[in-house]
């Protein structure tokens, strides 16, 4: 799994941990998409299209979704057909938070949010559907604090 991020790692950068979203919670969090066809005008065509294509895209998206933190930054890897990467340097993080919703409590999952001046509060970097979110956040904050000293 370490080589998932090789193409974007810097020379002196090393991965500390790679995190995969909780599979069950990931799909439960996206199941609202199956209700979209109920509001489209050509219900039958859209319903059939959605029932066959949407699961395919969701499975592909889950397969390519990974989060990592290194000795320098946070990295989010996503994509359906290719891989897209977002990263956030530790020195740019201004606040962090853990969100645990109604469905998260049952599965002991949650989302980690990292805010920077460029992301504002509208678009933070999110590690969604993470198992043991408080523990993960504490480990990441240890890395952030060690870099920002």
Low-confidence stretches: none
How much of the sequence lies in strands comes to: 25-35%
CATH homologous group name: Pleckstrin-homology domain (PH domain)/Phosphotyrosine-binding domain (PTB)
End-to-end CA span = 30 Å
Which structural class best describes the helix and strand composition? Answer: alpha+beta
CATH architecture level-2 label: Roll
Summary tags:
149 residues, alpha+beta, PH-domain like, four-stranded antiparallel β-sheet, three-stranded antiparallel β-sheet, 34% helix
Summarize the structure.
With 149 residues, the protein is α+β, with helices and mostly antiparallel strands. The protein has four helices and seven strands, in the order βααββββαββα.
Could you explain the architecture of this structure?
Helices cover 34% and strands 28% of the residues. The protein is an alpha+beta fold and 149 residues long. The longest helix has 21 residues, at 43-63. The protein is globular and about 55 Å long.
């Amino acid at each position: 799994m370490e080589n998932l991020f090789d193409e974007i790692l810097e020379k002196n950068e090393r991965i500390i941990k790679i995190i995969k979203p909780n599979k069950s919670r990931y799909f439960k969090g996206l199941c609202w998409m199956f209700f979209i066809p109920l509001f489209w005008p050509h219900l039958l065509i859209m319903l059939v299209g959605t029932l066959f294509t949407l699961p395919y895209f969701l499975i592909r998206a889950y397969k390519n979704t990974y989060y990592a933190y290194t000795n320098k930054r946070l990295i989010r890897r996503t994509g359906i057909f290719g891989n897209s990467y977002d990263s956030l340097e530790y020195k740019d993080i201004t606040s962090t938070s853990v969100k645990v919703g109604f469905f998260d409590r049952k599965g002991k999952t949650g989302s980690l949010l990292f805010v920077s001046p460029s992301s504002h509060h509208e678009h933070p970097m999110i590690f969604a559907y993470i198992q043991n979110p408080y523990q993960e956040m504490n480990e990441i904050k240890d890395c952030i604090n060690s870099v920002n000293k």
